[in-house]
Design goal:
477 residues; alpha+beta; Naphthalene 1,2-dioxygenase Alpha Subunit, Chain A, domain 1; eight-stranded mixed beta sheet; globular; binds FE2/S2 (inorganic) cluster; binds fe (ii) ion
Length: 477
């Protein structure tokens, strides 16, 4: 194979993976250590390590499978925690609204003022009809389609047909029931518990780390909702680690060094947040002897739509990363008008993925500027929705592009069935191949051994998720 015409299919071929069977690494530094060894500046955000060491009490499979835990999760988690409901750009104009569904619960989120959002239980006070349906709605009045009870954007009951027949139905007593609503980084969060502390309590160190990567200066360029036959917890756990890259995403191994992934957890008893960082342009440890810096660079450029480096450029790791960062800045400037000059290479090319309990994944930097969230579907422990966004940067003062349509991908469908989902859809498909099989395999486990075992570093964020879950649920194992 000519080094300058890399053949990515070689790495998408799972038989190749068997070639590394038996390999172990004598020295596998985590991200910050590796970047330092490479002589590169480490951004302070990456250098600031999470020191929380979660307990090692893996959650037994019954919590993923048995419907008897679903009502408990609704009461103790979904009715009690801050959770992301939508993005501000989903409801760009005053009066725009969407529903946010989590399990059997439904909430109505409305832009009630230029920069003001409100959220309510999505249920008419007359006889309970869901007020906002699956499609976004709009208008200066929230009118129930059943008997026309009407509410203003603050949820106040403004009109009841034949009002004289409803003596108790005063605006004071029969307005929409609010839930807490707050925003961070262009994301709209809700918490149904009116007694709960503020959103900032649930975010811990996250806002500080995102200060130089403002999520509000972004817009949703692609929006996917994928229905998946797996419990919401094991669905999201597949995204809390890079350990699965070896067999699930071998095609990414020449570009992303998942073996160098750094994991960090923070927990102060109120906020449970964690992060993983995986370097780009550093071939994965599993292929480190097969992939040169230049091949890695060419594949990266192809993947990100950057111009290929001239011959002789990018032969070393440092050069390859510098070239990719420089071109990333140029392409962003040309395409989005945003100038990232002076940003650390790490900010521009590496993967920095955050997690906020219970199910929200914001990403930091430009390497992969994604956004994930997981929600259970209905009352079933067997189904969930993975929501994925691609968030592109927006230049200060630039008009927001028109809202994108949400692409619904059904259980049996793939991201690649919807070309508009692009690369996000393709990588999602690779992850989805495991999902249903994980759920079925959990059911197939010997009841005497129906719980996972979790790695000390690579899967520490899952340990942390289990710890936070058990704390919220009041489970002692
Ligand atoms: S249920 Fe809404 S008006 Fe009757
Ligand atoms: Fe994955």
């Amino acid at each position: 194979m000519n080094e300058l015409t890399p053949d990515i299919t070689r790495y998408g071929n799972k038989s190749y993976v068997r070639a590394v069977h038996g390999t172990q690494f004598a020295d596998m530094p985590q991200y910050v250590e590796y970047i330092k060894r490479a002589g590169e500046d480490v951004p302070w955000t990456a250098a600031e390590r999470g020191t929380h060491r979660p307990t090692n009490k893996p959650l037994p499979y019954e919590y993923y499978l048995d419907p008897k835990y679903v009502p408990d999760e609704i009461e103790k988690i979904w009715k009690k925690v801050w959770q992301v409901a939508c993005r501000e750009e989903d409801i760009p104009n005053v009066g725009d609204r969407v529903s946010y569904e989590v399990g059997p619960l439904s909430f109505l989120i409305v832009r009630s003022g230029e920069n003001e959002f409100k959220a309510f239980w999505n249920s008419c006070r007359h006889r309970g009809r869901r007020l906002c349906g699956d499609k976004p709605e709009s208008g200066d009045m929230i009118q129930c389609p059943f008997h026309a009870w009407s509410y203003d954007l603050n949820g106040k009951l403004t009109w009841v047909p034949r009002w004289e027949e409803f003596e108790q139905a005063t605006p004071k007593n029969y307005s929409l029931r609010p839930v807490q609503c707050d925003t961070w980084g262009g994301n709209v969060f809700i918490n149904p518990d009116l007694e709960a502390g503020p959103l900032s309590d649930a975010m811990g160190v996250m806002p500080q780390h995102f200060a130089d990567c403002p999520q509000e200066d972004r817009y949703t360029a692609a929006h996917i909702k994928k229905k998946v036959k797996i419990n919401w917890k094991s669905g999201l756990e597949a995204f809390l680690e890079g350990y699965h890259v070896l067999t699930t995403h071998p095609s990414g191994m020449p570009i992303f060094g998942s073996t160098y992934t750094q994991t960090d957890c923070w927990d102060d008893g109120k906020a449970s947040v964690s992060r993983l960082i995986t370097p780009a342009l550093i071939p994965d440890g599993w292929v480190q002897n097969d992939i040169s810096a230049r091949v890695s660079l060419d594949l990266f450029c192809n993947t990100y739509g950057l111009p290929l480096a001239p011959e002789g450029v990018g032969e070393t790791l440092a050069e390859a990363r510098a070239y990719a960062a420089e071109k990333t800045v140029e392409v962003h400037k040309a395409n989005t008008g945003v100038d990232f000059t002076g940003r650390p290479i790490s900010y521009l090319v590496d993967m920095h993925q955050w997690f906020m309990f219970p199910a929200f994944f914001p990403w930091w930097g430009e390497g992969l500027s994604w956004w994930y969230n997981f929600t259970p579907l209905g009352d079933s422990p067997d189904e969930c929705i993975m929501e994925i966004r691609w968030l592109r940067p927006l230049a200060k003062g630039a008009p927001r592009p028109p809202k994108v349509e949400t692409v619904w991908v059904d259980f049996h469908e793939q991201g690649r069935d919807y070309p508009e989902t692009g690369q996000v859809g393709y990588i999602m498909d690779e992850d989805m191949e495991n999902m249903e099989e994980v759920h079925r395999g959990m059911k197939a486990a010997d009841p005497g051994a129906a719980r996972p075992i979790l790695a000390t570093e690579q899967e520490i964020r899952i340990r942390h998720f289990h710890e936070a879950y058990m704390r919220a649920m009041g489970i002692e194992l």
